[in-house]
Amino acid sequence: MKLRHDIVALIAGLLFGAGLALSGMVNPGKVLGFLDLFAIPAGGWDPSLAFVMGGALLIAVPAFALSRRRAAPVCAETFHLPEKQAVDRALILGSALFGIGWGLVGFCPGPAIAALGLDGWQAPLFTLAMLAGMAAKDRWVG
Fold it and tell me: What is the mean pLDDT of the chain?
């Protein structure tokens, strides 16, 4: 069961990374071009990543609906869903930091890891900073 789980996880990760690369999400310039809403009046805004989000929702919404009808996932004993349901200060602060970081550099965790194999120093630097931030959070916040 463990080997099957690992193989499915590997295939899912490769598929996810390929989708990020194909969509342009590993290109910080493309992401920043989408996030720069002030470029709309000048005609410099790149709306193409909205189609990426739309495509993701077309898959995710029915998948989550289907998961509610199942007793267990296909390759695991139980579902691993968030237990915490409240919108609290930590969630809002974490979301804000995530959005600010994404808007400043054009990377979020998934695309940064997928971009590690590409040329350039931005993805490795972002990934190191992300890991340092995660370690700092674990040390000081718990």
Answer: 88
- Written as six digits, the tokens of 140 are 């000081």
Q: Quote the pLDDT of residue 4.
A: 82
Please count the helices (runs of H) and the strands (runs of E) in the chain. Answer: 6, 0
Residue 81 above 90 pLDDT?
A: no
Distances (CA, A) of 68 to 10, 59, 103: 24, 15, 33
Other Cβ atoms closer than 10 A to 86: 6
DSSP line for 31-96 = HHHHH-GGGTTTT---THHHHHHHHHHHHHHHHHHHHHH-SS-TTSSS----------HHHHHHHH
Nearest alpha-carbon partner for 47 in 37, 60, 56: 37
Residues 6+ apart with CB under 8 A from 90: 141
d(C-alpha 133, C-alpha 123), whole Å: 15
Query: Do 23 and 49 touch, CB atoms closer than 8 A?
Result: yes
DSSP three-state, residue 18: helix
For the four alpha carbons of 111, 114, 118 and 119, in that order, the dihedral sign comes to: positive
Six-digit token string for 86: 């409240």
